[in-house]
Inverse folding.
């Protein structure tokens, strides 16, 4: 199986982290998004949405969208709660990550890290700060009650939200005011098989 991705992308790192924790082997296919490599005919044939990560199975089937890939790879594992309500809670956090977290923290990080925070994007960068801190406060509230986002055990939700949260500083989001969140980061980093983001 192949994973097409960008080493600096949090969405791609989610998949790398999950595979590391679960001991899943894969071939990494680097994609340079700034050089337009997601817009080549070959890549578009695999994912018309022109985004990474992209999972390509041995039989040629492809799956896009990072959280969908996480759910597929973790199917049947302890990272997906067996209890229906807890499983729905995990999905709730995945939707939160894509709608309330990633559009602020990941976008601010992209502007700073990938684009070098040009003056033409500074207003957009600044506009992401309030929304990003709102998302971090929501996580802090939950993590002050439970060690992981869905109770006592790590789930796919923790992997999804760890990816961009642990590098939130790249987007200007200081985490000093979030003690429960920082303790959660340390718990994730202590999991057997944990691997760092190469970026």
């Amino acid at each position: 199986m192949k994973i097409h991705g960008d080493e600096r992308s949090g969405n791609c790192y989610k998949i790398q982290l999950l595979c590391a924790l679960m001991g899943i082997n894969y071939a990494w296919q680097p994609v340079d998004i700034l050089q337009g490599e997601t817009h080549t005919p070959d890549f578009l044939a695999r994912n018309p949405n022109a985004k990474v990560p992209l999972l390509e199975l041995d039989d040629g089937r492809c799956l896009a969208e990072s959280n969908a890939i996480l759910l597929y790879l973790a199917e049947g594992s302890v990272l997906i709660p067996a209890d229906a309500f807890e499983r729905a809670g995990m999905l709730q956090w995945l939707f939160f990550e894509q709608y309330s977290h990633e559009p602020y923290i990941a976008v601010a990080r992209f502007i700073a890290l990938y684009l070098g925070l040009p003056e033409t994007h500074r207003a957009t960068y600044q506009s992401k700060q309030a929304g990003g801190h709102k998302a971090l406060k929501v996580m802090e509230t939950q993590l002050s009650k439970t060690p992981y986002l869905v109770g006592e055990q790590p789930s796919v939700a923790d992997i999804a939200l760890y990816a961009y949260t642990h590098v939130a500083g790249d987007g200007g989001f200081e985490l000093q005011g979030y003690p429960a969140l920082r303790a959660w980061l340390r718990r994730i980093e202590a999991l057997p098989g944990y691997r760092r983001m190469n970026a």
Observations:
- The mean pLDDT is 97.
- DSSP finds eight helices and four strands in the chain.
